[in-house]
Amino acid sequence: MTPSKACPLLLQSGKLLWFRHPQAGCQLVKGTIEPDETPSQAALRELREEAGIVHARVVRDLGEWEAGYQRQRWSFQLCEVDVRLPDSWTHFCADDGGQLFDFFWRPLLSAAPDDSHPLYHRALAEARRRLAEGLPAASGNEERI
User: Fold this and answer.
1) 3-state SS string over 48-109?
2) What is the largest CA-CA distance in the chain?
3) Which element (helix H / strand E) includes 25?
4) Residues 93-119 pLDDT 10s
5) Which pTM value belongs to this model?
6) Which helix (H) or strand (E) holds 126?
7) N or C: which terminal CB in the chain sees fewer CB atoms within 10 Å?
8) 105: number of Cβ within 10 Å
9) Region 31-36 average pLDDT
10) How much of the chain, in percent, has pLDDT values that exceed 70?
11) What are phi and psi of 126, to 5 degrees?
């Protein structure tokens, strides 16, 4: 089974990128993998569309996860940028008629924010596990946007 969702994990100073959706609480960046995309390409596109981050790259494929929610299978991609991003920012995302998303960093070892859907609590636990395992680095052909 191929993944349906890409979830870029962006870390900065031991903190993971989260955002507050105006109707759906706190979330990790995640979105649908289009038919013509690899999971890495989708992860970078989602960072660009949802967060306005245009100079990210995938440094490690952390594998796939059966989310147990709406038959979603996620692909986790560890991403990085070469510049320090602000502590928080707001970005207009054109999805679903346009939304303002409020981005912030949260320590990787902290619990998911209280107003997160239980799916994101499980996704955070899985992402932490995969990051701790130190899966092999991408094959030298990292993708950039």
Assistant:
1) HHHHCCCCEEEEEEEEEEECCCCCCEEEEEEEEECCCCCCEEEEEECHHHCEEEEEEEEECC
2) 39
3) strand 25-27
4) 998 789 999 999 999 999 999 999 999
5) 0.90
6) helix 118-133
7) N
8) 18
9) 96
10) 92
11) -70, -40
